[in-house]
Amino acid sequence: MPQTRILYVEDNEDLRDSIAMVLEEEPDYAVTVCTTGEQGLALLEQGDCDILITDVGLPGLSGVELAQRVLARKPAQQVLLCSGYDMGGELAALGPHVHALTKPFELDELEALLKKMAASLRGAA
User: Fold this and answer.
1) What is Dmax (Cα atoms) for the chain?
2) Can you give the pLDDT at residue 1?
3) What architecture (CATH level 2) is domain 4-121?
4) Contacts for 82 with CB less than 8 Å, ≥ 6 apart
5) Rounded mean pLDDT of 6-31?
6) Is 82 left (phi over 0), alpha (psi -120 to 50) or beta?
């Protein structure tokens, strides 16, 4: 089975490094990391990812704006928004393939959600 390609966008260096390290330990994931929404958008213009994980509160282009632009181009894109606040109704407006984790979250919460998202990509969910 091919690796699940993950693009992880996070401006907090400590958080970015620790989450990326955990994700990279999973052999089923191919992880690309960047620090801004603009960088994420540029990377996605060069090639798709299976799952976009992004912080909501990024400088410049926010995670929500990044998700909106990506979803406009690819409506079935799996997106995971990470935020310090509950996104509630905002999330539903973005579509059925958008999920959220409220910071701080446990690594097992992240891993379980990513497994669910990867399974839905394969049509198993």
Assistant:
1) 36
2) 64
3) 3-Layer(aba) Sandwich (3.40)
4) 10, 53, 54, 55, 56, 63, 100, 101, 102, 103, 105
5) 95
6) beta
